[in-house]
Amino acid sequence: MHFQMSTFLAIGAFLLQMHHIKGECLMINQYPDGNGPIETNTKLCVPQGEGDWTFGMETTLATVPGGDGDAAEFYIFDNTCKIRGQYDPPSQDPDNNCGIPFTAKESFLPLVLTVTDVSFDVGDPYFQFSYGDGTYSINNNGCDCVSDNQGTVANEKCKCGFPVDGNSSGKRSIAFRG
C-alpha cells in the first residue's frame, strides 16, 4: 500500500508541475501572406525610414449596452505602414488562451517578436516587447499611446518603432516622422 500511495503522489506531483509549465503562445496572423492594407491613421502608424518598422496595439471598449464590447489587436507594420501582421491577442481568444509571453514568428521578420508584458485596459494601455537585441515599451524608446475615442466607443492606439534587422544599437528611440 505504501508503494502504491507514493507512486500515486509522485505522478500527481509530476502532473501538477506539468500544468504550470507554459508552452509557446504563438500569435496567429490574420494576413498569413503578410500582405495587409496600408494603415492611414497616424495614431497607430507613421511611415518610417527604410528598415524601421512599427509594432502597434489598439484597444477598444464600447460603453453602451449592445455595443461590440471590448477588443484588442496587435499589428506589425512595415516602414510604409502596410499591415504585415494583425493578431488577436491569444489571451482574448478562447481557442488559443495560452498566456504571456506572446510570440510572432513570421517569414517577413528575420527574428522572433515576443510580447513580454501587456495591459489591454483602455484607460491605461501598455505593452513591452523584445525583438533582436532590444526591449521596447510604451513611454520609452519613443513609444506612445493616444486616445482615438469615437462617440460612445473608447479607443486607444499605441505604437512603437523598432529596427527590423533587430540591431537596436544607436536606435533606442526611433523618432516617428510625420
Described by strand count, sense and barrel closure, the largest sheet is: 5 strands, mixed
Task: Give the helix level as a range of percent.
Answer: 10-25%
- Unreliable runs: 5-22, 172-178
What is the count of helical runs? 1
Shape: globular
Cα gyration radius (Å): 20 Å
The chain-level mean pLDDT equals: 82
> How many beta strands in the DSSP annotation?
10
Number of domains: 1
Strand order of the largest sheet: 1-5-6-7-8
The span between the termini is 75 Å
Beta-strand level of the residues, as a percent range?
Answer: 25-35%
Secondary-structure content class: mainly beta
Summarize the helix and strand pattern as letters.
HEEEEEEEEEE
Give your account of this protein's structure.
By secondary structure, the protein is mainly beta. The chain has a 5-stranded mixed sheet, with no helix packed on it. Residues 5-22 and 172-178 have low confidence and may be disordered. Strand 9 and strand 10 form a beta hairpin. The chain has one helix spanning 2-20, and strands at residues 25-26, 52-62, 70-77, 83-87, 102-104, 113-119, 126-131, 134-137, 144-147, 153-163. The radius of gyration is 20 Å and the shape is globular. It has one domain. The chain is 11% helix and 34% strand. The N and C termini lie far apart (75 Å).
Keywords, separated by commas or semicolons:
signal, single chain, 178 residues, 11% helix, mainly beta, five-stranded mixed beta sheet, five-stranded antiparallel beta sheet, globular
